[in-house]
Amino acid sequence: METLSAGSASPMGARFDGKGVNFSLYSAHAERVLLCLFDDKGDERQIALTARSGNIWHGYLPGAGPGQRYGYRVQGPFEPRKGLRFNPAKLLIDPCARALDGAVGDHPSLYDPGDTPDGADSAAAAPKSVVVDERYDWRDDTPPATPWGETVIYEAHVRGLTRLHPGIPQGLRGTYAGLAHPLMTGYLRQLGITAVELLPVQQHVDEPRLQRLGLRNYWGYNVLAPYAVEPGYACGHQDLSALDEFRAMVRALHQAGIEVILDVVFNHSAELDLTGPVLSLRGIDNPGWYWLDERGDYQNWTGCGNTLRLDNPDVTAWVLDCLRFWRETCHVDGFRFDLGTVLGRTPEFNASARLFAALQEHPALNGCKLIAEPWDIGPGGYQVGAFPPPFAEWNDRFRDDMRRFWLRGDLAPGDFARRFAASSDLFNTTGRLPCATVNMLTAHDGFTLQDLVSFSEKHNQANGEDNRDGAWDNHSDNHGVEGPDAGQDIRERRRRSQQALLATLLLSQGTPMLLAGDEFGHSQQGNNNAYCQDNELTWLDWPRADAGLIGYTADLISLRRRIPALMQNRWWRESDPQTVEWLNEHGEALSAGEWERGEHRLQIRLSRDYLFVINATTKACEMTLPEGTWALAAPFQRPGQSDPERRLPLAARTVNVLVKQ
């Protein structure tokens, strides 16, 4: 068998240098690594990687270039009780592959769950890794580098965002090119968005269970190739590869002043549990890549069958290199880490874990926005407020408490104030700023805003799990009738609740995140776990978009930019009236009793000149404003309505903002 020249341990993966390709692969426990090259006919040529630097196997192949398809066969002991599952009959994907050729089906040769190795060769059924030329002409691309204090995030799905947009050419809808279309970037600018946070664009696959049900993993959290751009969101516009179409999208968004944040998945892999397919990491070095128990089975702290072992220095290096790829090669501006508690598992959560320190020190990530989903399902998995700088965190306490305040009326004014003031009880710790809380009312996981005010129960029957999946307690309120069909009175009450929730989200201290479609009333018909619904249920229904609600949302974001207390990214001090004053319905300072047991009517004065007047009760009322001349801000003005003098009437569940004249 022929061998390669030694090459080098870095860069990771397969890197073309203009003359040949350097291949490198991490495996601490392997005894032999075979590089498998495939020609256009599918014939396989095997070459041993004989050079080894530490735990990295590597070699250089002169004359190889972009388009070369390859994989690995890794030899070593098969001892399941020790977690070792080497089987050279299984062709393995390069964990650093920049592209893949072929899909993952449900072929029997892809599986090897037993106590003895299965001898069926999987090469015909397994996807092949592909060498990619990463060069790209970025021209004058300049990242917006929006300060955290000015950031407004829009969480969106590449396909779902534009798939039904009538103004975007049919061939571009649901793709990177569709998101880059001037109609879409112009809409985001007009709305006031500064960053799009995209659900996974790393190449992912459908779980075997979903394939058998005829469903698809729409959200994309079952990642197969973390370095590879998902080809299913590319249309080949202008004959671009998926990678280049993605980069053209990033450049177009940057030209519009919009940052790109990617939702990345480093907590588990698409190999799932022991009954899942053998695709890559399991066959490369099972105990090196995964957390295992004393029987050699997987620690399922993610709910997805396995958990990546990010305390391993070599796996840490892999994560950092992958982030560097997306940052330097694709110019993305930030990352949101799915089930981010796994980043700090040692195995218990440790805010000083190896990966956190490495992220803080890595030069390529300097200035990069880092956001954690601060929980997993393992022991001690809920870690909201515990992540180290420079991380921001999804704040589900804001989500739940603001829903309770407006839709259930069972949250004390003091708790509302804590969430409104950037959840200072959770995030005002050493080195952290108000931007550390990413405030949200909804996200891809759960009800949309329209459904939050239209359904009191989840309706997930289409997911094939008899409505057992998805959260049961959503703090939602159907306002008297379950579902979208309701009379005029209920529709008006729902609209007021939507507006109050949007105003609370976009005018609270911290970093607001708006779910795409919430600004115009998109509904998923009560499905609060639509991860497997790649269809009209989840694709944004632009033809039915509520233009009035879009304008209201845009006005709120514009108003936010004019309020210094919200933009300065500094913690408020109650003794400083230049930042915040908390008042009751009579325009007087809240008493101790009113903080904890008062009516859900209060006023918040920010930067002296902006007054939030809040009636979260189910009854209309009047409130006394502080002394001075006040005028209603743009989103809250009504035709024929005059500015109040000292008494302001408020309908049930409403908020108004006034500006001092």
What can you see in these coordinates?
Helix content is 22%, strand content 19%. The chain is built from 16 helices and 28 strands. Helix 9 (396-408) crosses helix 10, helix 9 runs antiparallel to helix 13 and helix 13 (488-506) packs parallel to helix 14 (547-561). It is elongated and about 90 Å long.
Chain-wise SSE layout:
Elements: E1 13-16, E2 20-26, E3 32-38, E4 44-48, E5 51-53, E6 56-62, E7 69-75, E8 78-79, E9 84-85, E10 100-101, E11 128-130, E12 153-156, H1 158-162, H2 176-180, H3 182-191, E13 195-198, E14 202-204, H4 208-213, E15 223-229, H5 242-255, E16 259-264, H6 281-289, H7 313-329, E17 334-337, H8 354-361, E18 369-372, E19 392-395, H9 396-408, H10 413-420, H11 424-427, E20 437-440, H12 449-452, H13 488-506, E21 511-515, H14 547-561, H15 564-567, E22 580-583, H16 592-597, E23 601-606, E24 610-615, E25 621-624, E26 630-632, E27 647-650, E28 654-660
Helix pairs in contact: 9-10, 9-13, 13-14
